Predict the 3D structure of the following.
Amino acid sequence: MKTEVIGKMENQGMIAAVLIVGLVVGLGVGYMLPGLMTAPPEEPTDLLEVIQDRGYMVVGTSSGFYPFEMVNTTTDELYGFDIDLAEYVATELGVTIQWQDMDFGALVGACAAGTIDMIAAATFITPERNEQLLPSVWYLRANMVIVVKNDSVLTVSSYDDLDGLDVGVQTGTAEDFELLDHNDGGGTIDIQEYPYLDQMFLDLNNGLLDAVYVDEPVLGQYDQIYDIKIVYTVLAPPMAFYIAYDNPDFFEAVNNAMAKAFETGYIDELILEYFT
Amino acid sequence: MQELQEIIRWIEYIIVNGLPATLLLTALGLGIGLLFGLVLALARVYAPTGIQIMATLYERLFRSIPILVLMFVFAIGLPWVFAFAGVGTNAIFAAVAFSLGLRSSAYQSGIFRSAILSVSPGQLQAARSLGMSEMMANQQIVLPQAFRIAVPAWSNEYAVVIKDTSFALAVGVTEMNKLAFNLYTESPALMMFILVVLTLIYFCFTYPVTKYVGEYMSKRLKRLGLGGG
């Protein structure tokens, strides 16, 4: 008795299911395969044209950094010095902004790959970053400070005084690079890297860290909560927006917008608003 | 009470702004994982040796890559692949869903393969002795039983994927974990309480599903006599 005739109703269902699954998988692979096979497309046009065609600019930031980029949890919106300045630049270019709020350490890689168009995250100008990305005109300068608990007896006159101690830094920041360079030159600081500042200050408060090395502006928020004091101050490299190389029109447009912000006194307005 | 109102505000903030993204990522991740995982499992059990080896290599590879590395590679490093969805937020979202799906497919291929292999060989013998061909016996007798056996383990995979979505905050997707971070950046002293609230929210979405599907389904399978009988 032949039970294998394909025309039977039960077999048809199974074969149809297999065909449909195969078709969907094939469609999906076929859709993505051209994208995966071609190299990153050579942009014949400048990033400025691409952004203006698109109508929005993708800007990366890393919120939680007082007072440059913070989230207002009542309205679920980003606000801060960098946010306002970047919105100003976008208005000058005639586009809106789509914010991408990610880890600080991921920002440089994302901008170099093209996932985001610009970094607006209180990023200091350092030689390592300049190898991969192009900084705009710088807009602000702050201090880098070493902070300890109020009852600590540590005094610091140079990085050698930190040798052998647990020092916290935020991953990927200029302070991180400074201490790593010191260790490369023979230092023995126990560098603890944190992706977020809150955890770092909590550990300082609980005694897990001897000191933290941060930018001075964040203390405006943290010294209201914790009992801390500054033991070392050094002028930081200035902050700028970072964009990818080989986009001269975009670079010029961003710098023109920043120059206008300085001329019209917008930067002074922002400093008054966020730093007093 | 002031504290209770504050907690309710947190819960509302996290759920209203983050839950759709988390559930969508879970659904997409599980869906892609199901598609690839089924194909791979069938390949590993029934296909000729060459294809079996390729499927096994795929599974070994994606079980050993950390999910965060996968997300960085696709969301940060390969933006043009997902640009079809819309450059920026949509592309990153698609990349995260795809990397979740890839990792999940490796584990799901294991789930379905072990389910197929755990159907008693007596079933296949009985089917063949009735005159069914190999292919018909597998389609009609073995696979239906295998899928029913796989359901409790599959609900376990759901619980894993919904918690894996929290890694997406590192690449810029706004989901529940990121919103909790926003909350305790605003009020750092309350970090522990906010994290407890977040844990309870994840618990509410994981426990009922695994309990219902896992235990209920296991009891039903025992009643039907499946699952190693």
